[in-house]
Amino acid sequence: MSKIIEGLCYSESHEYVKVEGEFGYIGITDYAQHELGNVVYVDMPEVDDEVTAGEEFGAVESVKAASDLVSPVSGTVVEVNEALEDEPGLINKDAFENWIIKVQLSDKSELEGLMDAAAYKAMIGE
Amino acid sequence: MNNTYYGKLIFELSKEGRRGYSLPKNELDNYKLDTLPAQLMRSEAPALPEVDELTVVRHYTNMSNNNFGVDTGFYPLGSCTMKYNPKINEDMAAHRDFTCLHPLQDVDTVQGALEVYYNLQESLAELSGLKEFTLNPYAGAHGELTGLMVMRSYHASRGDNKRTKVIVPDSAHGTNPASAAVCGLNVVVVKSRPDGTVDVDDLRPLLDDTIAGMMMTNPNTLGIFEHNIAEIAKLVHDCGGLMYYDGANLNPMLGVCRPGDLGFDIMHINLHKTFSTPHGGGGPGSGPVGVREGLEQFLPSPRVVRHEEEEGHHYTVENGDQSLGFISGFLGNFAVVMRAYTYILTLGHEHVKNVGPLATLNANYVKESLKDCYELPLTGVCKHEFVFDGLKDKSTGVTTLDVAKRLLDYGFHAPTIYFPLLFHEALMIEPTENESKETLDAFIEVMRKIAQEAKEQPDMVKTAPHCTPVRRLDDTQAALKPIITYRELATQE
Description:
The complex is a heterodimer of chains A (about 130) and B (about 500). By secondary structure, chain A is an alpha+beta fold. Chain A has one domain (about 10-110): CATH 2.40.50.100. Chain A contains four helices and nine strands. Chain A has a six-stranded antiparallel beta sheet. A three-stranded antiparallel beta sheet of chain A has the order 4-6-7. The longest helix of chain A has 7 residues, at about 30-35. Chain A starts with 8 loop residues before the first strand and ends with a helix. With about 500 residues, chain B is an alpha/beta fold. Chain B has three domains: about 10-25 and about 30-65, no CATH class; about 90-345, Aspartate Aminotransferase, domain 2; about 350-480, Aspartate Aminotransferase, domain 1 (Alpha-Beta Complex). Chain B is about 35% helix and about 10% strand. In chain B, the strands form three sheets. In chain B, strands 1-7-6-5-4-2-3 form a seven-stranded mixed beta sheet, with helices on both faces. Chain B has a three-stranded antiparallel beta sheet with strand order 10-12-11, with helices on one face. Chain B has a two-stranded antiparallel ribbon with strand order 8-9. In chain B, strand 2 (about 165-170), helix 6 and strand 3 form a beta-alpha-beta unit.
């Protein structure tokens, strides 16, 4: 059974956003890391890059497959989780603790189009 | 399967001063090494192994025994037709009359080779329902790039420069979006329906005057025939785009239906799949590209042209004015062309028609014989390949990876796993038309046995393989800290 955290926003492509004020921490869900298997590389954008809701901002590569990262929200990247460069497996240890990028949100109304914990739980069938 | 690992390097067998050859007497005396530019001179002797002939023979024979190949056993790799390479292909390709040719020889002295090139080109055109082929591309993905360059050249020739997007289904081979990106085109993904085929309703809104074309594999990567292909081709053509056929799955179509008749304008064929030339590490490959009438002037240079003359035919090698240019040196991998041409002539007009139906029959036989033990997400008749979504009984925790590893213990090559991405536990099988019923039955029996083992001894299956030269490899460490050279291995130890 995958871990799902209350209070986060979830996308259909298994990313989450944890909102703190004007900022959002974006990562992949515990369900996604489990499906991917051991993550061996995370391709991340750079600080000051723009991300757009519904568009690719990077990729996660595991021993099974490479998957695009799709941003659930739009905004400007203010921080990337550099620890993942040396140790991509942190995502497998705790996908919610180890977010991938921190974004300054440009349109908070986009969050309304995302799922809450209960809806995401229903989507993955758990 | 061989279960002892031979891991020596030829350098480890080297003994100073040992020789396995003697060079002929040097008959040149009018050269001076010291006039060579300094940067071309070696400062020290090359580090070559010094070994006798018998040591070399044993070394490479033992090393080849580490390998599993289609000559060793059944190789049910889905998504990549891994068919037997008949030995007559090798005899023809190794024929002295062909191997001693030089690409810069006068064309009047290579008329036979050009005839082979031209005839294969014509055979592929007839089998695929297209107008003309180039055999110049070196591999399937190289063919994809060439085909997309034809697409761009076509739009550019009409002054239509806003078409920068290529539509690719979400079930596509990874090379499709990669080729499009290399060609400078943007990729737009169209979704699949639950039955695995392209969702026409999802496609419609994507079509406008920015679409250069659409790439499709038919049957698709799930082994399902895209039954809406006529409608899809019409929609794409109506918006001004071209249809590209990825020939990776041509095998089940051979002799049954032709991409040109389905509405495709451009395609590539992997000779190393459908036409039984060596595959993978056994390459080199070849990815001929065919086009419908009206696009042939864009094909890469050089092209082999046939001229009808009173006393027969004469062939020339020509560069076209509107050609997209050169994509390879000379005329591609000619020895591969020889093999594919031999294969087509061996089968002949009558038997080439059996390739598709037999490949389809074999795949359906295996699928139906295993669907009570393995999860079959897409039921119905498949073409040359099909996908299981892991074991039916998932409670044991035994995954597709474990099943694939356990198959090695029984002397079968593992099928493709975790592709296509539409299913979590994808296990993809393609038997090809070559395999006998006895081989398929033996494979089915082993697959059923593994399903049983998963219930009774799950830990044993999860730690497979047990009988191979090397046990289960650490994929994660291999990706994170790859050891590429012998020197790195030495420092690790």
